[in-house]
Amino acid sequence: MTLPASLSRDGDVRHHLLSVLVENKAGVLARVAGLFSRRGFNIFSLAVAPTDDDRFSRITVVVDVESAPLEQVIQQLDKLINVVSISQLAPDEAVERELLLATVAVDAARREEVGAQVEAFGGEVLDVGDGELTVMLAERPETVDEFERLLADCRIVELQRTGRVALPKLGHSGGA
Amino acid sequence: MKLTGAQALIKSLETQGVEVMFGLPGGAILPVYDPILDSSIRHVLVRHEQGAGHMAEGYAMVTGRAGVAIVTSGPGATNVVTPLSNAYMDSTPLVVISGQVATSSIGTDAFQECDITGVTMGITKHNWLIKRAEDIPRTVAAAFHVATTGRPGPVLIDIPKDIANSQMEWYWPESEADLDLPGYHPRTTGDPAAIAAAAELMLAAERPVLYVGGGVLKSRGSAALLELAERTGFPVVTTLMARGAFPDSHPLCLGMPGMHGNYTAVTSMQRADLLVALGSRFDDRVTGKIDAFAPGAKVIHADIDPAEIGKVRVPEVGIVGDCRLVIEELLTALEALGLGHDRRGAAVEAGSTGRAATLAAGRPSLEGWWAQVGDWQREFPLYYDTDDEAAVKPQMVVESLRDLSPADTIVVSGVGQHQMWASQYWRFDYPYTWVNSGGAGTMGFAVPAAVGAKVGRPDKTVWAIDGDGCFQMTAQELVTASAEKIPIKIAILNNAYLGMVRQWQEMFYAERYSEVYLSPDLPDYVKWAEAMGCVGIRAETPEEVAPAIEKANSIDDRPVVVDFRTDAFEKVFPMVPAGGSNDAIVVHPDQAGARVAR
Question: Could you tell me if B226 and B347 lie in one domain?
Fold first, then answer.
């Protein structure tokens, strides 16, 4: 069967987005992560937080793997007692967001120009220091990719992305 | 009713219906051992925790109930890791209780602390670290539920010492809904559309084989399988984990497939146009080189574990469900397509109309297939060389054990040549009479597993057929057997070698024998047996074999060990070299020679 492929920052179709509803209990993340590592699959990004029902958490994971072994890993994942459900999300069937925080070195002369560019992306300047700015963007992952390339024009002091979170688009079923 | 966590744990096991547990106490599990004194549950005190785990496995494999082992923290818990891994590979229901250091000490490298839930995460179906005494009854009930339903497997409950000592108000979960398992819903019945598609494929097959695995035994599906085989007239192969699921003496049975399987079982799968895989998992020891396995066969694959469907071989029809239920559903579907049966059990193809009647009536004859199968059976039966009349052939020992012991004897084996000879030369006509380590290949499994099997079925004769290498790994559990009056019998096929490794070195490493010689006399197995409270017997010539077995069978008040001095040069045939195609099956040189001569 064919799996929906989610585009990564490199546009690599080997990246797949899984949304995994799990019990909110100690050790569950280790069980999920262990399943991937035991089969030699690299987790590209991972985001975990409780859902509106605090008995459950949602893990959004982007894995770097061919489709056939992914199907097997999903089946194995589903065998974990703490995993309640798994959805595979294709890019056109999901709304995705990712948050980026970056501190960039900006001299006073360029500060205004950079601030304007951040605003044009819908981002925010969160903090201003001596020759440095900390900026934030929460957007679609591809937009975050573009934003990151833009920031690379300045010297990036530190950068942190959260990994993507996603929900199925309304009117579509989520796969799996 | 207020109880301590320890009391609640034992009461939970009693409420769950546990009749026996195998274990060894220690510091962190001490509180739990106190209420054992007042419990109805029998406790078998082992000499090493690995023994406790394998005993629980042997018990589970012959009874179908979860085996229970109880150990302390740290090394006690790590000693049971091998049995957990073994049970995970062979889908054996096991509940292991381990002690843990007090919650306040977890993570401090306390004495005998080990993160056993972390260690066993990948080799248990699930495990629990209990953090509140009030969780104990629910967790125990959930543990048994998880271990014994769906695809069975081992689970572990880790209980910190302070939790065992703290107080709780007793309760018992009323129903499955109280077990707090929102992500666990095993599917047991097959998808009707898949069942119908499978039945149609079966009626179209010209060269079918029923490829039966351990799932048929786990699902108590032997009777249903017998009906399916007789109704369809399909040949049956039983994998190493399924020996006894279908009677070896039945004319439809072709025996065991795989690396050391019967020539006919292996070759019929290679030439089949349909494999009906029932609770089997296309293990590499069965398929050989996967790309060359059964190249012309369509596959129907039924298994209770969805992850097995398509894991190794993508089937034409995959059916997720309990094997017994799926077989029964297939029988119903076949009947609907016109393949019923009369009262004598003989297959009749009548009684339907329209397309259904056409399918059954137009069904290809299997006569040509059976003629081919019969030729293979005549040309390549199981064979060993009997020219040397002075040598005790290990195959002859197994045949003598088989012929001189009750037909429903439970046979237990370790891992290696003796295991393959036991599987090949015994005649398994009853389910749950074969106990061995399949997937994990755990040497040393036999002695403790035999103890557990005998505890589970004290009415039956239990023979362990063991190798000298395996025996030395876990023989101390014969002390347990003597002390607990568990009269098992051990046949050591003593060839003074790690025989299977020796065989590979002979065949694939230019006879360069590296670290495989063990000596036939060191240890002295008879003296060792006697020192452990057993009767020790030695058989050094073919003439001594039958009297030794008869003497062993006459003793029922203590364990017996028979040291059979077998031919060290004997190899297991047939053999598919590792990684090779099953078409490259190597038969005994005498048979290969006869074929060339023709």
Answer: yes
